[in-house]
Amino acid sequence: MVIIEDVAAATGVSTATVSRALRGLNGVSAGTRDRVLRAAQDLGYVPSSAASGLASGRTMAMGVLLPLIERWYFSAVLEGVDRQLRAAGYDLIVFSLGGTGTNRERVFHRSILRKRIDALLVMCMELTEDEHRSLRELESPTIVVGGSVQGVRHVSIDDAAAVRDAVRHLISLGHRKIGHVRGGGSYGLYFEVPRIREESWLQTMAEHGLPVREEWSVFGDFRFGEAKLAVKQMLSTVDERPTALFCSSDEMAFGALTAAAELGIRVPEELSIIGIDDHEFSEPMGLTTVRQMPEEQGAFAVDLLLGELAGQTPLLTPPAQPHELILRSSTGPVPA
Description:
This protein is an alpha/beta fold. It is built from twelve helices and eleven strands. The chain has a six-stranded mixed β-sheet with strand order 7-6-8-9-10-11, with helices on both faces. Strands 2-1-3-4-5 form a five-stranded parallel β-sheet, with helices on both faces.
């Protein structure tokens, strides 16, 4: 079986140069690229199932690495990614960790590295140093959607600004007793987003001279069920209830709304609730929220990668994506 080292030996260049030449990446002279392509064809070396890809160095496939598919944000980003790729004639290859993170080794070192892709989009994941190294070895354009990863450019909203807008809305309604339903790092997958949102929450409260009471801060794990249980326990046990809750995601806000309903607490007359996302169920549930558009984030990230593959200068610092405060019926003036 012919391997990449055989092509490198036949042409007198490194395996990295062979890889770049076969993928059509920059940094390889036209003469070297021609020699590598001829040697690969003569030796019968085909790094993917599509031998025709040798001529252009393109597989016409883009990979998306994500923690799991079932969550609203991830599936919405995928919709935008798929839309743009289909329009460009590209195939989409999804690499999912399945939620537990236990098969990261298989995904990184078997699936991704053994499949030829022209570019990789990573969603909402903190990467280990070994995983960073694996991505660098791909020598393919890479971008993160949904948060920042050290050393990799990313496309996302300004999370700190989104939190400020949400909390300031509650303050503008007269609320001073504001609680927080925070997200976290299930399986270590959500990395920077929960930290940024919690820090912005604390900073915004401090800027307005408002107390942060520990008993009003509960952990909802970005999930409906966990948030519902945590909020219900908090509201039913504290000596004094908050008049408003800032939830770091809409799914947790849904849990807070349900908890309040089960306790007979009127929203917004007795408790205002606000989230972040504008989930597809936010409008029917009357949730005030800060809207982000994950489909458009995914499409924008794909456009950046496709542009780079076409020879455009890489955009090293993509601009923050838009967010917008959406007013609905779950927030109102502080109770008299």
